[in-house]
User: Which sequence fits this backbone?
């Protein structure tokens, strides 16, 4: 099932053909007669961090250490020979531990496994890249495999070339316990963090979205452990940044949320019901004196969680009751934060997953039933026939000082009269779909989605209720072969201003009747300096990156306000002075389309960089 996050004004939503209420209703609550776990008999493993001035998280957890906390209060370091260790997860049988660790200072973070009785750690991941937040998973299998196999999930940091801003982008990866058969589970050009596996088998995680000015938000998503069926989980209710999800045996999805970013991700607690995640949001804590972080399931109605004073001080472990909101202190260490606590005990193994993904393939299928089947904000304004084509865009991560999204154009495909589409797209690639009107303007743009090799993913429509069941209709698009939209990498253009737009402006807009005359409102300059000045002026006054329809440049080119009713700009008055002027040579259709594509794809500066060089 897929339901990625879509902008109200610039994104529309996909919802899978298999509805949540049918396939992922969650497991029943545990037997009421089952004994509740007891802190008096359950040891814990947690991460200990020095609680000195500032935040120890700012240094990359270099001083973190895993400790065992026994019921009598004894605290014992688990890995005294490691320079740093954190991110513990206990196996389903309660006998083993996986964690992120550095044996020596200066090493990269690797994933290790250790038998809790024998105490001999062994590495799982290679030392070439940083790996954090490991998670024991349920089993994967294929219909013809002789037996299922166990895998591990972790957050992997992928280096980004300097031409794209440098830095790293973090996504989820799956690997066998012997370190083989590693594959990418998520493909977000920003960050995917904080994975947790629910009992129904899905991985819940925090997916980040970035803009030029920094992070926009972080929302909860769910994905199958083989990387298929990604979906927005819980809608967009609550605070902007939602992190650290966990699921109790009673079906409560608890997470940390905040409207600002804190160094350790701390915030207030909120929850959803696993059976109705999009319609059950509830605030759990709202005391500004305390910040909460790293919740872990304890019982059907309790979580083990860390909290720290908002004004500073060490984080302590508490047991938090979800129904009553009561906190019971568990353990506090003077001079240290205690976070990431996990009980050392046996726990249920989540449902497994059968996979159709084939790493030998390079593409997958993406299809939709009806783009006009939308939510109440869009549906009244999407008349049949108003969406003509679908533009497919590839995302390129950029994590420089300004983490600007960067996009390549893969191509376009038709939308049938009934609103359906059927595409063959590159696998394991961040993709956006833009629904185009008769002018080639993006009516809406989805957030990042992807397919695994050989996966076929279907959706209902545009931003409708994700818990709905679709009609049983054999739509027009799937009666035909999928339209291939996966050109070779060297044929995926970036419509850069310097290479594509600036030549058009020089040729069509530099005349005496336009922006070359003495009475022009602003004049085109010459050379690189002129291009840079014009680019900055357009971005400041005339262009809404990613939304050509709401950009004043488009209004001048087409002579009218093309913003949609769900855009704030739709109320702005006209008329707008035609560009070029009526007596000038009209702008060729191909040039007009290039300008629209440039705006809809984020208005990048060049083919090599989404942002221009800094002024001297």
Assistant:
């Amino acid at each position: 099932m897929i339901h990625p996050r879509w902008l109200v004004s610039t994104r529309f939503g996909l919802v899978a053909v298999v509805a949540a209420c049918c396939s992922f209703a969650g497991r029943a609550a545990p037997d009421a007669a089952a004994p509740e776990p007891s802190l008096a008999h359950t040891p814990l493993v947690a991460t200990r961090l020095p609680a000195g001035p500032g935040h120890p998280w700012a240094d990359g957890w270099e001083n973190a250490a895993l400790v065992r906390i026994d019921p009598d209060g004894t605290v014992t370091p688990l890995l005294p020979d490691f320079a740093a260790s954190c991110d513990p997860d206990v196996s389903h049988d309660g006998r083993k531990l996986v964690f992120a660790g550095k044996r020596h200072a200066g090493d990269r973070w690797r994933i290790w496994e250790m038998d809790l009785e024998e105490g001999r750690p062994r590495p799982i991941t290679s030392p070439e890249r940083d790996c954090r937040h490991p998670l024991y998973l349920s089993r994967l299998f294929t219909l013809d495999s002789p037996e299922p196999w166990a895998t591990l999930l972790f957050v992997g940091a992928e280096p980004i070339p300097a031409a794209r801003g440098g830095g790293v982008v973090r996504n989820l990866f799956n690997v066998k316990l012997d370190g083989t058969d590693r594959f990418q589970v998520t493909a977000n050009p920003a960050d995917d963090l904080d994975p947790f596996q629910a009992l129904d088998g899905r991985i819940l995680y925090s997916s980040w979205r970035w803009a030029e000015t920094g992070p926009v938000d972080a929302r909860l998503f769910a994905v199958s452990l083989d990387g298929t069926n990604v979906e927005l989980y819980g809608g967009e209710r609550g605070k902007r940044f939602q992190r650290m999800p966990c699921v109790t045996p009673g079906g409560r999805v608890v997470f940390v949320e905040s409207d600002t970013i804190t160094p350790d991700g701390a915030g207030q607690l909120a929850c959803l019901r696993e059976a109705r995640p999009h319609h059950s949001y509830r605030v759990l804590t709202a005391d500004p004196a305390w910040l909460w972080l790293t919740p872990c399931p304890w019982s059907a109605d309790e979580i083990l969680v860390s909290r720290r004073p908002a004004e500073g001080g060490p984080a302590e472990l508490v047991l938090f009751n979800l129904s009553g909101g009561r906190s019971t202190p568990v353990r506090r260490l003077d001079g240290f934060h205690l976070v990431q606590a996990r009980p050392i005990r046996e726990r249920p193994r989540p449902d497994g997953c059968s996979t159709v993904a084939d790493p030998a393939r390079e593409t997958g299928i993406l299809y939709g039933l009806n783009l006009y089947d939308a939510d109440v904000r869009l549906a009244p304004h999407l008349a049949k026939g108003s969406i003509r084509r679908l533009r497919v865009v590839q995302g390129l991560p950029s994590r420089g000082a300004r983490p600007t999204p960067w996009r390549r154009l893969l191509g376009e495909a038709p939308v049938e009269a009934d609103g359906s589409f059927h595409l063959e797209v590159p696998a394991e690639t961040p993709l956006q779909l833009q629904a185009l009107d008769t002018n080639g303007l993006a009516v809406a743009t989805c957030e990042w989605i992807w397919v695994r090799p050989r996966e076929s993913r279907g959706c209902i429509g545009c931003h409708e209720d994700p818990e709905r069941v679709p009609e049983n209709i054999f739509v027009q698009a799937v009666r035909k072969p999928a339209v291939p939209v996966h050109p070779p990498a060297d044929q995926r253009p970036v419509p850069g201003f310097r290479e594509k737009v600036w030549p058009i402006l020089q040729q069509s807009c530099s005349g005496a009747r336009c922006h070359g005359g003495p009475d022009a409102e602003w004049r085109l300059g010459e050379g690189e300096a002129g291009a840079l000045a014009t680019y900055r002026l357009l971005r400041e006054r005339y262009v809404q990156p990613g939304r050509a329809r709401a950009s004043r440049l488009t209004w001048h080119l087409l002579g009218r306000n093309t913003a949609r009713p769900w855009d704030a700009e739709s109320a702005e008055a006209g008329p707008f002075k035609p560009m070029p002027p009526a007596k000038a040579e009209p702008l060729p259709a191909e040039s007009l389309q290039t300008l629209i594509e440039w705006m809809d794809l984020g208005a990048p500066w060049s083919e090599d960089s989404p942002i221009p060089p800094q002024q001297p």
About this structure: The longest helix spans residues 527-541. Residues 363-491 form a domain with the Immunoglobulin-like fold (CATH 2.60.40).
